[in-house]
């Protein structure tokens, strides 16, 4: 009987994974298809990737995406670290809610409200507005990651550092920061992937000339799902998977480092 | 060298320390002993600089330390969980206090190696703390705290995470180390056995106050209160009323048991009619089927109520009267079957008039 249940479980989880990953697999496969249509397999080619690298609009979008993701991840890493430390140290009830709200809030709400804010403040829509917008929802991820790291850190380590002659700043830079680093890096990598993938918030806060990859793909898909879209989607997927794997690696390393 | 005057501290409504005074001499191995919540750790954290007293002074070699941050005090701490920096090697951990003090790099190397030799772990320099055993971490924590030659070393229950065998070995190492380096040690523990084994002097703390401050043997043999007698070792506490007394002796009526004569310690004075407690250590009680009471001995009859075989000794609980149990220890030194008793056996117990110690009850 237990065996029967196991088989059902296997079948069910296989079905779930197929549902989740088959569409992605199809995108990847058709990005190598030597045909303009996503209808049937004709033959293997890399030419769509070539087309991609000749497409100046696509390249500009890619450059924008990388720029935005790098900047927002970096700023979010700094602010998120401070927020995460405060959340763990000060135990203020309102602080976690304030930091994490942008993570939980529907993207469309965040996008619309930021758009209204930028217009009110007379900030022209462009790379800067998109970066500001991305920072808002990225902080929460870094803060969560840093807070978890702080939670697993022994407070007596800081006391030991002070006891052995370190000033508060030395204790922070020599002990706290190195021990938080894996959490900060993991959070920043998460922030980077979220920024590079974001569509909704970017859609509301981007202006002319600040189109990102997801926006560019969307505008192309409106006409047709071309193999070029498959190719850029595949690349985006690879980058994201790589970063997420890296982030989880850092988290694991972080846990191993503690006694 | 360390003088503590009238230290008080409140955490909210909880009074952690209620006016503690202490004087600790140079080169002393001093122990703060007490149950959890007695204030011993708070006091230690104040000497280290992690807590500030609400009132009172902490004078280290004449200088008031209150308000001085921990990094500027010539005092280092060995933490209960060792607090070794997990991202640094053993050598980097030990070098840390020297780097903070801006000692020259080549001198640091020499002193780190010396410190490792002192704790008998010369080849662990490159290891990370996670790769060390509990005892090794303990030694590295001590090496790190001693490498800068503090005036005072604070140890916060440093052996509590070790198993019994390891603990005994570390106790001996601690005693030897303290003798070698000559630095004043202040040791915090709730383990009375550890305190007796290690210390030159012990301050027994209870509810934010020092209940008694004395040398281990004095503390054990002449407790000044029910709390201390009960906390240090096993102790029989018999309630009594003084029927007669002179400078050296007192005649007591042990409640429900009978009359007994005890000799008085120099500091103890009692008056006729006063209620008091007679404390009797189990190992000072003789127990046999037929005792030939010696001069200066009192003896009583009783029944074995419980026995507890511990290997080296057997603990007998003897019922002297309804509900009054006396604990006696018998070393299992020979194979005399006649000297073993079973529950229900009738026995006689006896003790010398100088075996008991009298505590005046308020």
Automatic annotation (TrEMBL), chain A:
GO-annotated biological processes: transmembrane transport
Occurrences of domain ABC transmembrane type-1 (ranges): 62-247
Protein name: ABC transporter permease
Subcellular location, record wording: Cell membrane
GO cellular component: plasma membrane
Chain segments annotated as transmembrane: 12-32, 66-87, 94-119, 125-144, 179-209, 229-247
Keywords carried by this UniProt record: Cell membrane, Membrane, Transmembrane, Transmembrane helix, Transport
Gene3D superfamilies in alphabetical order: MetI-like (1.10.3720.10)
Similarity field: Belongs to the binding-protein-dependent transport system permease family. CysTW subfamily.
Top-level taxon of the source organism: Bacteria
The UniProt record lists the keyword Transport: yes
Membrane topology: Multi-pass membrane protein
Pfam families the UniProt entry points to: BPD_transp_1 (PF00528)
TrEMBL record, chain B:
Keyword ATP-binding: yes
PROSITE patterns for this protein: ABC_TRANSPORTER_1, ABC_TRANSPORTER_2
Classification via Pfam families: ABC_tran, TOBE_2
Gene Ontology biological process terms from the UniProt entry: putrescine transport
GO molecular function, one term: ATP hydrolysis activity
UniProt EC number: 7.6.2.11
Domain ABC transporter: 2-232
Keyword hit for Cell membrane: yes
Keyword annotations of the record: ATP-binding, Cell membrane, Membrane, Nucleotide-binding, Translocase, Transport
Reported function: Part of the ABC transporter complex PotABCD involved in spermidine/putrescine import. Responsible for energy coupling to the transport system.
Family: Belongs to the ABC transporter superfamily. Spermidine/putrescine importer (TC 3.A.1.11.1) family.
Record note on quaternary structure: The complex is composed of two ATP-binding proteins (PotA), two transmembrane proteins (PotB and PotC) and a solute-binding protein (PotD).
Protein name from the UniProt record: Spermidine/putrescine import ATP-binding protein PotA
Gene: potA
């Amino acid at each position: 009987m237990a065996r029967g249940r196991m088989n059902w479980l296997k079948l069910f989880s296989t079905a779930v994974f197929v549902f989740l990953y088959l569409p992605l697999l199809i995108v990847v496969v058709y990005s190598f298809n030597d045909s303009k249509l996503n209808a049937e397999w004709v033959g293997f080619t890399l030419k769509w990737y070539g087309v991609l690298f000749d497409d100046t609009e696509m390249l500009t979008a890619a450059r924008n995406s990388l720029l935005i993701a790098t900047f927002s991840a970096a700023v979010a890493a700094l602010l998120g670290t401070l927020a995460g430390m405060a959340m763990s140290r000060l135990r203020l009830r309102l602080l976690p809610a304030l930091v994490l709200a942008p993570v939980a809030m529907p993207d469309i709400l965040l996008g619309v409200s930021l758009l209204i804010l930028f217009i009110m403040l007379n900030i022209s829509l462009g790379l800067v507005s998109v970066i500001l917008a991305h920072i808002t929802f990225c902080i929460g991820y870094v803060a969560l990651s840093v807070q978890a790291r702080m939670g697993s850190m022994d407070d007596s380590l800081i006391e030991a550092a002070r006891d052995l002659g370190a000033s508060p700043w030395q204790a922070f830079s020599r002990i706290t920061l190195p021990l938080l680093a894996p959490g900060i890096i993991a959070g920043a990598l998460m922030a980077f992937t979220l920024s590079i993938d974001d569509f909704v918030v970017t859609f509301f806060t981007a202006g002319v000339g600040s189109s990102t990859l997801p926006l560019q793909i969307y505008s192309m898909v409106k006409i047709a799902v071309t193999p070029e879209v498959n190719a850029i989607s595949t690349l985006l997927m690879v980058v994201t998977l790589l970063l997420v794997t890296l982030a989880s690696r850092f988290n694991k390393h972080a846990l191993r480092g503690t006694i | 060298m360390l003088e503590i005057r009238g230290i008080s501290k409140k955490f909210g409504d909880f009074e952690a320390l209620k006016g503690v005074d202490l004087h600790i001499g140079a080169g002393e191995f001093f122990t703060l002993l007490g149950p959890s919540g007695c204030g011993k750790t708070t006091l230690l954290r104040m000497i280290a600089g992690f807590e500030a007293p609400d009132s009172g002074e902490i004078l280290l070699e004449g200088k008031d330390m209150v308000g001085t941050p921990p990094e500027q005090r010539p005092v280092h701490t060995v933490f209960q969980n060792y607090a070794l920096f997990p991202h640094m090697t053993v050598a980097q951990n030990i070098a840390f206090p020297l780097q903070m003090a801006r000692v020259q790099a080549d001198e640091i190397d020499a002193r780190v190696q010396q410190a490792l030799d002192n704790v008998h772990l010369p080849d662990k320099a490159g290891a990370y703390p996670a790769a060390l055993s509990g005892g090794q971490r303990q030694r590295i924590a001590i090496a790190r705290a001693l490498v800068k030659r503090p005036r005072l070393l604070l140890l916060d229950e440093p052996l509590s995470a070790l198993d019994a065998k390891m603990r005994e070995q570390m106790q001996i190492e601690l005693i030897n180390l303290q003798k070698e380096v000559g630095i004043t040690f202040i040791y915090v523990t709730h383990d009375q056995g550890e305190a007796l084994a290690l210390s030159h002097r012990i301050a027994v703390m209870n509810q934010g106050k020092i209940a008694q401050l004395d040398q281990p043997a004095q503390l054990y043999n002449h407790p000044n209160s029910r709390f201390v007698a009960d906390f240090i070792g096993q102790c029989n506490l018999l309630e009594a009323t003084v029927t007669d007394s002179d400078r050296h002796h007192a005649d007591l009526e042990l409640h429900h048991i009978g009359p007994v004569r005890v000799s008085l310690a120099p500091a103890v004075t009692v008056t006729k009619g006063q209620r008091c407690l007679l404390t009797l250590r189990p190992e000072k009680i003789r127990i046999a089927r037929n005792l030939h009471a010696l001069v200066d001995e009192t003896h009583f009859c009783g029944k074995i109520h419980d026995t507890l075989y511990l290997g080296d000794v057997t603990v007998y609980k003897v019922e002297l009267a309804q509900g009054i149990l006396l604990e006696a220890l018998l070393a299992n030194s020979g194979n005399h079957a006649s000297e073993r008793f079973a529950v229900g056996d009738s026995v006689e117990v006896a003790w010398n008039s100088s075996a008991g110690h009298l505590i005046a009850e308020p």
